Amino acid sequence: MEDYILSLPLLATPAPVSSPASALTSTATSATTQGDNENGFFSSSSGIVSRLFLVIFIGTISMWANYEASKGFKVTIINNAKHSPAGRRFHLFYASNDEGTRIIQNTSALVENILYPDSSKTKKPVHHVILQLASKNLTTKVIVEKSKSKEFVYVISLCPSILEEINFKYAVASAIQRGMARIWLWDGESKAPPWLIDGMEEYIWMKAGFGGNNDTETTEVHQGLKAFGPEQLCFVLSQVCSNSNSNYNLSSGDGNSAKSGGLCREDKDPKIVAQTLGYLEQKNRGYFQGLNQILRDPWDKQPCHG
């Protein structure tokens, strides 16, 4: 008996039929995923840019803070002659572009380096310097005054006539250099003789390179001064008060052998005083800084003030 087997053909697995609804869902899902990727990209880029701007902002603030701190004191520029030719020139060259501030800072740094080269020297407090162009001509090119209302605030007043000079830039820088020297010098609580302070100012001014040849010092250099006290002060004054700046009686290296029989009363040419101080400074480095330091104390308490 024969078996008859009916072979049924294998049915292929039917392909899934996508409905319109499922197709829309798939498309929407794909679009959403792509949109999320794009949003993530832009969000990430935006975050990087934001952080970059934050770093730049913090860096700028830090640089500004360091710049302000380096100045050491506040600087204000005032133009009291705005409508005059001198006032317009002052505004153009010194007020509108901060050049006046830069000159104040540069001249101040030079004076500080001469008077206070290290932390062992007590520095005169200066919190605020006001540079102003006077509304009318003054008796001198520059006048320095203490503020009457605030402590450690100083006003440098420039005479408008210096803005009319041919080389007015040199004249202004020269005047401001004198002003900053006067500000940083101790002055025996404003009681030291004017000729002495004028001479010390002249010395700094000439050391800064103004006034032609710098002849405040010789080329010979000697050992530094270990200490500056009353003996040295009397010695300096005796030398400055001599009639000639070319005949010095430096019988000892520290000046202790010289005595002053009393302070000279007549005014002295600031250049003569400056040259004398320069000579003494070369004989013993530190004389000028020591003289400035001893003038922290009231002048009437000095042993040879009168």
Rounded Rg: 38 Å
Mean pLDDT: 77
Number of DSSP helices?
A: 8
Q: What can be said about the biggest beta sheet? A: 4 strands, mixed
- The helix content is 40-55%
- The N- and C-terminal alpha carbons lie at a distance of 158 Å
The structure class reads alpha/beta
* Strand order of the biggest β-sheet: 1-2-4-3
The rough form would be described as globular
Number of strands: 4
H/E element sequence: HEHHEEEHHHHH
Low-pLDDT residue spans: 4-8, 218-223, 243-262
> Strand fraction band?
5-15%
Notable features of this structure?
4-stranded mixed β-sheet, alpha/beta, single chain, 4 strands, 47% helix, 306 residues
Structural account:
There is one protein chain. This protein is of the alpha/beta class and 306 residues long. It is 47% helix and 8% strand. It is built from eight helices and four strands; from the N terminus they run H-E-H-H-E-E-E-H-H-H-H-H. A four-stranded mixed β-sheet has the order 1-2-4-3, with helices on one face. Strand 3 and strand 4 form a beta hairpin. It is globular.
Give the helix/strand layout:
Elements: H1 20-71, E1 74-79, H2 85-95, H3 99-115, E2 128-133, E3 142-146, E4 153-158, H4 168-184, H5 194-207, H6 230-240, H7 270-283, H8 287-294
Parallel strand pairs: 1-2, 2-4
Antiparallel strand pairs: 3-4
Helix pairs in contact: 3-4, 4-5, 5-7
